[in-house]
Amino acid sequence: MSNSKFLKAATKTDFTGTKVATGAAICLIAAYGMRCYYPTFAKIVFSRRSKKATQLQGGQTKSSDKHQESPASGSPAHSSEPQKYDKANPNVDQNFYKQLRYLIKIIIPNICCKEFGILSLHTISLIIRTFLSIYVAQLDGSIVQTIVQRNVTRFVVQLAKWILLAVPATFINSLIRFLESKLALVFRTRLVKHAYEKYFDSQTYYRVSNLDSRLSNADQCLTEDITMFTSSLAHLYSHLTKPLLDVALMSFTLYRLAQSRGASSKTPTIIAMVVILITAKILRAVSPKFGKLVAEEAHRKGHLRFMHSRIITNAEEIAFYNGHQIERSLLTRCYSALVKQMDLIFYKRLWYIMLEQFLMKYVWSASGLIMVAVPIITATGIREDGSKVEDDDDGGVSERTRYFTTARNLLISSADAIERMMSSYKEITELAGYTSRVSQMFEVFEDVKLGKYQRNTVTKQKPIKTNFERISGSLVQKGVVIDTESTIIIENLPIITPNGDIIVQSLSLKIEDGMHLLITGPNGCGKSSLFRILNGLWPVYGGKLCKPPPTSMFYIPQRPYMSIGILRDQVIYPDSVTDMKAKGITDEDLMNILKIVHLDNIVHREGGWQAECDWKDVLSGGEKQRMGMARTFYHRPKFALLDECTSAVSIDVESKIYLSLKAAGITLLTITHRPTLWKFHTHLLQFDGEGGWRMEELDTTARLTLNEEKQKLEHQLAGMPRMQERLRELCTLLGEDSVLLSSGDIPIPSEDDLAAYEFKNE
Ligand SMILES: Nc1ncnc2c1ncn2[C@@H]1O[C@H](COP(=O)(O)OP(=O)(O)OP(=O)(O)O)[C@@H](O)[C@H]1O
């Protein structure tokens, strides 16, 4: 605070003057009842809100719900409305404290950790800053006193002290900002590490998006929400701690100062308390549910991001379909939904901040004017202990000026501090929103790991009670999973989708080493689902499943995943180069593997093993499938689960690959629609698409004969509609009837008939 500003303030009542008054009110209250006031304040701001919220649930909740619904209802945005994964209402209540405690335990696991060290350093800096402010206020008073006394020597000395003090003061200010950012970053790092651990444990990343519908955009929670939560927490810590320290220490200093002047302060204190309590009550009553609002905003942001990532992933398909119009309209709807939510928040903030400023700046200032006047008017010059206040030769003018300047500076700082504390409330409610989202993300991670899934979908079929049950709409896992060495045994296992639809009621089979199983059936009959269960992706809701560990089974899908990295990484995925070396495999071995799948040419074509590009786009569909097969030769599992993984590979290369797989001692479980692959299998599992299945030894010759007959028949029947149509035309031309057309009894034409017919028409 400069002296010119002080002189201005001392000579006329301006806005700064009113701040002095405000500060006086606050500090006198603080001086009288620090112990009882702040708990009351905290209670008003934090605890009582939840009580009131419960009382007002009917009215308040309804109104906020209306706001929540408004962006979607009756608007085109409705269809793009993100799914609400939870009905929890983030408020500053017991639940918020519970969630915050849970997250704080993660980010500060013990007092010896780095996070606690930075937090302590931050706290110390805040304390030092407060002491420096007090000292600066007192120094300011002394400088003004020397000016009034016209004592040049003392003035120069005090001014030098002032300048010297500026060095540590500015450093501490800068340090506080640095430590706040650092704190947010270390909190974030700790939380992200923990989240990644959970996300990649027990295939949680798959389960979260495929088996559970509560977290529709985990990527948003793992990035944006964690960042917002940690920066909001770190910011709030310094935003609340510093004002609290400021008010506590400055009030105490001011109280001591007032006592030394023998001023009365009881009546103004009571007035100030009443004003502050009423302000807090009003603000609490009208405060919008910022927590709920920002949580919804974050959710919509996540949905928008999800829609963008879908377009990037499926860009080629969309482009082929010319689907840009519909995709753009979907994106626009999502964006509009987000804008509506943001608008709602801005609008609510506009009125809330207006009221907050009105009460805290102007109403408080008006009351403060009374507070600052009372101690000066009622000053008796006799202290509480009965001693008299000694004045200087100038009749006490310089001493009163010093007192006024010091008090004024302390009061301004305290007023700022209390204003910051009060305005922090909306930041706390916003923190409640982020806390709710982040802690719910961890809750979902925990649940899916334990197999507790929640889906918003309606099942198409009724589950059968004997094998599996539902508790509150969720299927209960009653199946047994046992690890075996080299045999797959399935007993009375139901195949049930994540929606709860039963595809196969009870499946029993045994697959031993060297027993190559062909799996067939119509689309959607549950072939791939069986693989999902074998891999542990889908839960076992009933029966018994004995299977070798995941390292003994290798799954190759129809669209093999290409990882980010160099060419070598594609062949050895998901191993790293270190794993490869540990297994004693060299680049030469990899080249031999690529030769088996007829892909060795790409090493030269793409620029060697170290070549790095977007393999998803660089390799053709067939090449990607061959790469998938190459991985099987690299990993050499006991069982290879092949899910139509060679559908884009030429038949001759496919046959060579299958022969090599068998030669390598790998047991095949193949889903395919190609009869050319039958000969590589010994057994057949055939689903009928209606829940039934059949397991038998595969007689390829007999099956091929049947297949030939089927194809012949299909070919013959394919000509029927054309022949019928021609017969009708001839009848019309000749003006005659046909017995065959009128009776509908049309014989199936022979191959020769068809050939003759085709010939004639040509
Ligand atoms: N994540 C999922 N959530 C809900 N239902 C699913 C899920 N995945 C598959 N389904 C359903 O399970 C059923 C069986 O799917 P599956 O992928 O096993 O079929 P399939 O026999 O392999 O068919 P296709 O020959 O077409 O590949 C389908 O009706 C499908 O809709």
TrEMBL record:
PROSITE patterns: ABC_TM1F, ABC_TRANSPORTER_1, ABC_TRANSPORTER_2. Gene3D superfamilies: ABC transporter type 1, transmembrane domain, P-loop containing nucleotide triphosphate hydrolases. Its main location: membrane. InterPro entries: AAA+_ATPase, ABC1_TM_dom, ABC1_TM_sf, ABC_transporter-like_ATP-bd, ABC_transporter-like_CS, ABC_transporter_sub-D, P-loop_NTPase. Residues 55-90 are annotated as: Disordered. GO terms for biological process: fatty acid beta-oxidation; long-chain fatty acid import into peroxisome; peroxisome organization; very long-chain fatty acid catabolic process. Keywords: ATP-binding, Hydrolase, Membrane, Nucleotide-binding, Peroxisome, Translocase, Transmembrane, Transmembrane helix, Transport. The keyword Translocase applies. Pfam families: ABC_membrane_2, ABC_tran. It is found in: Peroxisome membrane. Residues 70-80 have a biased composition (Polar residues). The chain crosses the membrane at residues 20-38. It is a multi-pass membrane protein. Residues 123-360 form the ABC transmembrane type-1 domain. CDD domains: ABCD_peroxisomal_ALDP. One of its GO terms (molecular function) is ATP hydrolysis activity. Residues 488-714 form the ABC transporter domain. GO terms for cellular component: peroxisomal membrane. Belongs to the ABC transporter superfamily. ABCD family. Peroxisomal fatty acyl CoA transporter (TC 3.A.1.203) subfamily. This is ATP-binding cassette sub-family D member 2-like. The lineage of its organism: Eukaryota, Metazoa, Spiralia, Lophotrochozoa, Mollusca. The gene is LOC106054076.
